[in-house]
């Protein structure tokens, strides 16, 4: 980068040997998490602060910088910075084009701004892409060269690893796996598309299905759990009902599993991957209810030659995936 | 490869300079086409023979070899062989796992068999993948690093070029773009999946839609064109009716265009490409009727950030795409 004079090549070489840490950042709409990581993905120190996104981009950035300064007092030992952001990013130029949960963060030159502050190379990626990288290097996908990570929570996102590398697409936007159509005449998704995996199988879809069934007079333990007020339905309550054996709740998860399974079939036919890693609250907390239908649907509908040997497993790293992926990005982008 | 002794490195260097041709093969279920091509993709000589697939694999292979011998009498000037096969292939080991239109061609070691015959490196690929490569190098995708080729005829196939290379997936099966679900409750496809792009928008789907409408009593010029016998409906007749302004025929193409457009939206969200090249009989012969709906659907349903600047164009090379792609494969695999 730019802060060293041309004459200090010798010192730089020594310096590089000492630079064994990276600073990883998970820039969320509600929380900013910062970690100091070693080369093996161990988190040495971590800090988290509320994003307070409504205060504006510069206030968020100032708090981010202060938190990064607080995570280590020896920046001479930091090789690089990796940052995951929600939304569309240019991973080559390190620009955050748009982050819906961070109002005003539009065309924000995050890489340049961080490098100006810390005089260390910075690398920016989409949060779901980085979670894919984290799971591949340190989680459920260790040792697998090709995998697709799908996170299912309030939305559905994803990241594609092909041949040990993130598949980024022409502009870095690839892997929006939640926005493939599965029902051409289905409901409109927030993204503008119709009948997307996200609008059919993410958390809000499950809650909507439960509310509609209750309003239509369907018997369910959810009536008692919500004091007979369908508007009080939450994902946690549907999960609780499913655990207690409630038929409606189990049907709702099976239906979600069917759509997720069909989504994986389409992904398999397009990408020919080896492993699907499913993360996010809906996948992890309801695994016992959705996984059987996901696997059954995949086995029933994927082409035999293309489904052979392909595995579907839960993510292992939870919220850490994105943070560890950011650490991977910082470490590996530099050694390329 | 294996046929030169270790001592002739000097001769090999001279030899390579003279080796300016490749032999490209398009191994179809009905026809085998062989071409001698120069490095710029010009076809110097071409031959075609019927495949006569029912005579069995060894008979087909013997005719293939004889035709390749006939395309040039100076094999010392041939650098390599590229062959496109219909079906699933292992592009690294050059094995044809299964080619539905070539009965008995199962786990066939095409690369090894051709190298044994011709003592020249041979490279094998899926036919739609090679057509994508042909269009990218010599056709509608010249100069574009990222594109998705979709061929729509009796089936829907495809090939994905990412960063100037074929995207092959873990085992070389990627790009089965015709087999992504668009209607979870739609008809079952031959591939085993439900509501695939292929079962909704390929030629047979259009004919089925026309027949069903006629049987349901719908007025259409197709009645006269088929002597009021719905079983006589063909794609050519639907196209003829559409040209004459027939409302039913135009509706059928618009419906196909809607599904194709939705398929491209899903592909765009997954792959973030720059260009869609549409080939195959249905796309090319009915472009004027399907393209407007394809483009309209893409514009309406793809995320604004992801559709910006993305173009949808007809293929330029027709039947030549696969043959030229095989030539590219032979030439470039060797120089890597």
Largest interface: A-B, 49 and 50 residues
For the largest beta-sheet of chain A, the strand count, sense and barrel status come to: 5 strands, mixed
What's the total helix number of chain A? 13
The CATH topology of the largest domain in chain A is what?
A: Nucleotidyltransferase, domain 5
Give the overall shape of chain A, derived from the CA principal axes: globular
Oligomer: homodimer
How many structural domains can be distinguished in the coordinates of chain A? Answer: 2
What radius of gyration of chain A results from the CA coordinates? 21 Å
As a percent range, the share of helical residues of chain A equals 40-55%
By DSSP, the count of extended strands of chain A is 13
Which CATH C-level class of the largest domain in chain A is it?
Alpha Beta
CATH superfamily of the largest domain in chain A: ATPase, nucleotide binding domain
List the strand order in the largest sheet of chain A. 3-2-1-4-8
Which structural class should the secondary elements of chain A be placed in? alpha/beta
Please name the CATH architecture of the largest domain in chain A. Answer: 2-Layer Sandwich
Rounded to the nearest angstrom, the distance between the terminal CA atoms of chain A is: 15 Å
Low-pLDDT runs of chain A: 1-15
Mean pLDDT rating of chain A: 92
Instruction: State which percent range the strand residues of chain A make up.
Output: 15-25%
Q: H/E element string of chain A?
A: HEEEHEEEEHEHEEEHHHHHEHHHEH
């Amino acid at each position: 980068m730019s802060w060293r004079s041309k004459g200090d090549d010798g010192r730089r070489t020594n310096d590089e040997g000492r630079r064994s840490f990276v600073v990883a950042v998970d820039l969320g709409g509600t929380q900013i998490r910062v970690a100091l990581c070693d080369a093996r993905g161990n988190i040495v120190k971590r800090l988290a602060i509320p994003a307070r996104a409504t205060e504006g981009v510069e206030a968020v950035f100032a708090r981010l910088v202060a938190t990064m300064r607080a995570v280590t007092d020896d920046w001479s030992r930091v090789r690089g910075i990796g940052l995951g952001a929600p939304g569309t990013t240019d991973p080559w130029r390190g620009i955050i084009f748009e982050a819906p949960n961070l109002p005003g963060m539009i065309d924000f030159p995050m890489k340049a701004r961080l490098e100006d502050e810390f005089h260390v190379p910075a690398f920016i990626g989409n949060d779901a892409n980085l979670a894919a990288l984290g799971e591949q290097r340190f989680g459920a996908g260790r040792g697998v060269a090709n995998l697709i990570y799908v996170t299912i929570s309030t939305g559905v996102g994803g990241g594609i690893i092909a041949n040990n590398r993130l598949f980024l697409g022409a502009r870095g936007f690839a892997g929006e796996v939640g926005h493939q159509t599965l029902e051409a005449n289905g409901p409109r998704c927030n993204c503008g598309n119709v009948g997307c995996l996200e609008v059919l199988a993410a958390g809000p879809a499950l809650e909507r299905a439960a509310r509609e069934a209750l309003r239509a007079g369907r018997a369910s333990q959810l009536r008692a759990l919500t004091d007979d007020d369908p508007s009080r339905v939450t994902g946690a309550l549907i999960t609780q009902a499913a655990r207690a054996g409630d038929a409606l709740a189990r049907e709702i998860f099976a239906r979600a599993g069917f759509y997720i399974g069909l989504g994986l079939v389409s992904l398999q036919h397009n990408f020919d991957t080896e492993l699907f890693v499913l993360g996010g609250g809906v996948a992890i907390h309801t695994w016992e209810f959705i996984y059987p239908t996901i696997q059954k649907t995949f086995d029933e509908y994927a082409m035999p030659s293309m489904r052979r040997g392909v595995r579907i497993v839960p993510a292992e790293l939870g919220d850490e995936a994105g943070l560890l992926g950011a650490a991977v990005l910082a470490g590996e982008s530099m050694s390329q």
